[in-house]
Amino acid sequence: MPARILEKIEEQLGGRLKDHFDLIAGTSTGSILAVGIALGKSPKELLDLYLEKGLQIFPYQKLFSPQRLPLIFKYGLSTPKFSDEGLISVLKEQFGEATFADLTPKSDQGKPPLKVLVPSYDTQDRNPIIFKSWFHERWYAQVPVWEICVSSASAPTYFPAHRIEKNGQVYSLYHVRLYRLCKPKGEYLQEMMVFSCEGSLLSSSLFLLPSSFFLLPYLCYTRPMLPDMILIDGGVCANNPVSCAVAEAIRILRESPNQSLGSVIDQIKVISIGTGDPASPIPWEKVRGWGLVQWGLRIADVFMDAPPDVHRYVAEQIIGVGKNDDKSRYIRLQLPLKDPLLAMDDARETNLQALLKETDRYLDQEKERLEKFLANW
Predict the structure, then answer these.
(1) d(Cα 215, Cα 175) in Å, to the nearest integer?
(2) What is the dihedral of CA 99, 103, 104, 110, to 10 degrees?
(3) Is 85 helix (H, G, I), strand (E, B) or coil?
(4) Residue 119 forms beta bridges with which residues?
(5) CA pair distance 176, 198, nearest whole angstrom
(6) Residue ranges of domains in the chain
(7) How many Cα atoms occupy the beta-carbon half-sphere of 320 within 13 Å?
(8) What is the Cα–Cα distance from 3 to 233, expressed in whole angstroms?
């Protein structure tokens, strides 16, 4: 759906879509679209990717499909529904070995290059991580873009978590991570500090510190070293990354001299595209008696449904849409969907064609609003 909408936007704006934007943010499947646009691909090429390669990523529908047996034998019944081999293969084929920093090459003249923002979630540190293509000094700058996309699209229950590792080196989230082993040694505490710097292999140093300098409890302790990143779908924290994008746009614009917050916000225009809004209610008669089993089957969907509207609300309030009803700088394109079109893993041709049909119907309804918004882009 977003690829079809982007196709319509490119048609009206003319030229390459990437030349009309300063910052693109995408989560999960949106990360694939964002990276593809930044690499110069057209929305039509990206749409064809989904139509032609969808079944390679989502090869079956039933949870106990014979094709899933190798996963069950390897990991047990609680294994994710799909292997990530198809997803990785498709993205490698599409994006090659382009690194995340390649999306935003350094430029000293002319228009600043397009920036790309991709959210994911690190299960080891239990924190969101926001990949930014223009931060060339960050550890992830040289990570292949296909791997960034896999990290953002590894939806819980559908795909396994993704561990970022490249060229035999494990990358760490922070500039320095510590692992301390200490023991009394006379008037001193002997401390071994193991640390990982940006993009480097583990190294260690031995320090002798006066006990008076050591502020932590005297008892020996161990803090686990977490040298790698285990990443899952950015949708668990920013299914709709619009507020992340607006926040970054404000920060970037304020780096210029003599820029007030108000003047910066007035320079921002946003097109926010959703992947479909569930239009099937869960009635009170059903939900009031739900317990562990019923909620367990649906809780992931519920948690994915709510955050996009929160991020939309935040972005609208910042830009002023909510306060001043200024529709000239923000537009949200979100198609209401009902079952069975809500299934995110149904890549069968009949389902994809039905989605395209619904998207085209929605675009016909929103044609005037979209054309009016893009007229002053």
Answers:
(1) 23
(2) 140
(3) helix
(4) 130
(5) 8
(6) 2-167+230-375, 178-225
(7) 14
(8) 19
DSSP 280-299: ----HHHHTT--HHHHHHHH
Distance CA 347, CA 351 (A): 7
The Cα angle at residue 218 between residues 213 and 222, in degrees rounded to 5? 105
Q: Residues 47, 240, 122, 40: is their CA dihedral positive or negative?
A: positive
pLDDT by position in tens, the chain (length 377)? 899 999 999 999 999 999 999 999 999 999 999 999 999 999 999 999 999 999 999 999 888 888 888 888 887 888 889 999 999 999 999 999 999 999 999 876 667 899 999 999 998 878 899 999 999 988 899 999 999 999 999 988 889 999 986 444 444 333 333 334 444 444 444 444 433 333 333 343 334 444 443 444 433 333 344 457 788 888 888 889 999 999 999 999 998 888 888 888 989 999 999 988 876 677 788 888 888 777 776 776 676 677 778 888 888 888 876 555 667 899 999 988 877 677 788 889 999 999 999 999 999 999 999 999 999 88
> Look-up: residue for tokens 């500039």?
175
Angle, helices 145-153 vs 85-95, to 10°: value is: 140
In the chain, the amino acid numbered 100 is F
**With contact defined as beta carbons under 8 Å apart, do 104 and 134 qualify?**
yes
With beta carbons less than 8 A apart as the criterion, state whether 176 and 225 touch.
no
d(CA 25, CA 194): 35
Whole-angstrom distance, CA of residue 270 vs CA of residue 291: 40
User: Do residues 374 and 13 make contact, with C-beta atoms less than 8 angstroms apart?
Assistant: yes
Give the CA radius of gyration of the chain: 23
Tokens of 72: 């069950």
What's the half-sphere exposure (Cβ side, CA atoms, 13 Å) at 91? Answer: 27
CATH 3.40.1090.10 fits 2-167+230-375, yes or no: yes
114 near 38, Cβ under 8 Å?
yes
Using DSSP, state whether 149 is helix, strand or coil.
Answer: helix
Give me the residue label for tokens 């999960």: 28
